[in-house]
Design brief:
There is one protein chain. This protein is an alpha/beta fold. The chain has one domain: Rossmann fold (3-Layer(aba) Sandwich), CATH 3.40.50. Helices cover 38% and strands 8% of the residues. It is built from ten helices and five strands; from the N terminus they run ααβαααβαββαβααα. A five-stranded parallel sheet has the order 1-2-3-5-4, with helices on both faces. The radius of gyration is 20 Å and the shape is globular. It binds thiamine diphosphate and magnesium ion. The site of magnesium ion (MG) has 7 residues, from loops.
Length: 345
């Protein structure tokens, strides 16, 4: 279902979801032409990131993973500076030093990104501890995949968060539904002995919910409750947002196996290719959001296409900017490695 919001706000959310989809498609296509290195894309999880992170305020912090592109775009990142960073260019968010795996921007509320699975959990917990001790009403959001639940750092972090009632939201994006426990024989992102991921939350007494990550209303409602709990000093919440892995993410390296998204699949079933019918009709959150927007009178196919053209234009501009940007000068290699005297408050 759609979140209960005005048409204008819903169109804003759709624009962000489309920006993520078109950004990732641009990147996968670019990787077919030039050496981009290894990267992970957020296709299929857009609605989780967009609906959840839209609720944050300036000063709230996010700690994400190797699959971070969608999270930064959901918080308003400029696709040009994102792509420049991924390509290692000096104009990127981290001057080309972070790359896809460590994309960060303090201004956007992403002070540090760790690509070590589970690496974000102590970072987010430490930030929440600081916020709590400083008496601020800011919240810290820990964004991670089901794989992080295999790591010791998760268990240490949730223990401290529960003990200290920290203003922290554990948003676990479980994209392993069909691969959990290696049953499907595909590349699994986690191999856990537990039946439900929330079994790894219950002993700590932290409130936990499981939601459909493609259901904008469920994500927004769950996140609203979690943020309220955190801001009012009642401690952390765990949200498991379930999505089905995009077919293009099933190989080890992303591939555009479903082609570039044809949005008319949202209103014209006859154009859906048979091979990926299930994905496009029941599992693609962006198409589902568009379908719901049209069904509930918030958009028409024409407004959706116009919005998408705007977004695709931004991506072309971003691609040109990133490709034309220079690499950092070799003599700047050690810049930003060591704190300068007096630069740390
Ligand atoms: C500590 C650690 N072990 C292994 C890896 C290699 N690795 C990169 S992504 C990944 C799977 C992570 O799965 P999940 O956390 O569910 O995220 P997803 O990729 O499914 O979004 C692994 C094992 C790593 N980055 N860090
Ligand atoms: Mg996963």
């Amino acid at each position: 279902m759609l979140p209960t919001l005005s048409t204008k706000v819903l169109l804003g959310l759709l624009e962000k979801a489309l920006a993520i989809r078109r950004f990732e498609e641009m990147l996968v296509k670019l990787a077919g032409k030039i050496d981009v290195g290894h990267f992970h894309v957020y296709v299929g999880q857009e609605i989780t990131g967009v609906a959840a992170l839209d609720l944050l305020e300036t000063g709230d912090l996010c700690f994400t993973t190797h699959r971070n592109h969608g999270h930064l775009l959901a918080r308003g990142a400029d696709p040009a500076l994102m792509l420049a960073e991924i390509l290692g260019k000096s104009t990127g968010y981290c001057g080309g030093r972070g790359g896809t795996l460590h994309l960060a921007s303090a201004q956007l509320g992403f002070p540090a990104t760790s690509a070590a699975v589970g690496g974000c959990t102590p970072l987010a917990t430490g930030a929440a501890f600081g916020m709590d001790r400083l008496g601020s009403d800011r919240v810290s959001v820990c964004l991670f995949g089901d794989g992080a639940l295999e790591e010791g750092s998760y268990h240490e972090s949730i223990n401290i968060a529960a003990l200290e009632k920290l203003p922290l939201i554990f948003l676990c994006e479980n994209n392993s539904l069909e691969a959990l426990g290696q049953k499907a024989g595909e590349y699994p992102s986690s191999t856990l002995a537990v039946v439900r991921l929330t079994d790894l939350v219950a002993p700590f007494g932290v409130p936990a919910i499981t939601i459909d990550g493609c259901d904008g209303k469920a994500v927004r409602d769950g996140m609203t409750e979690a943020i309220d709990r955190a801001r009012s000093g009642e401690g952390p919440t765990f949200i498991e947002a379930r999505t089905v892995r995009w077919p293009g993410n099933r190989p080890l390296w992303p591939a555009l196996v479903t082609g570039e998204t044809n949005l008319s699949m949202a209103w014209d079933e006859t154009v859906i290719p048979e091979e990926f019918r299930e994905w496009h009709t029941t599992q693609d959150g962006v198409l589902r959001f568009v379908r719901e927007m049209i069904d509930e009178g918030h958009a028409t196919p024409e407004t959706v296409i116009a919005l998408d053209e705007l977004v695709q234009d931004q991506m072309r501009t971003a691609e040109n900017f990133a490709l034309e940007s220079p690499y950092p000068e070799p003599e700047t290699a050690l810049d930003l490695v060591f704190a300068k005297s007096g630069s740390v408050p």
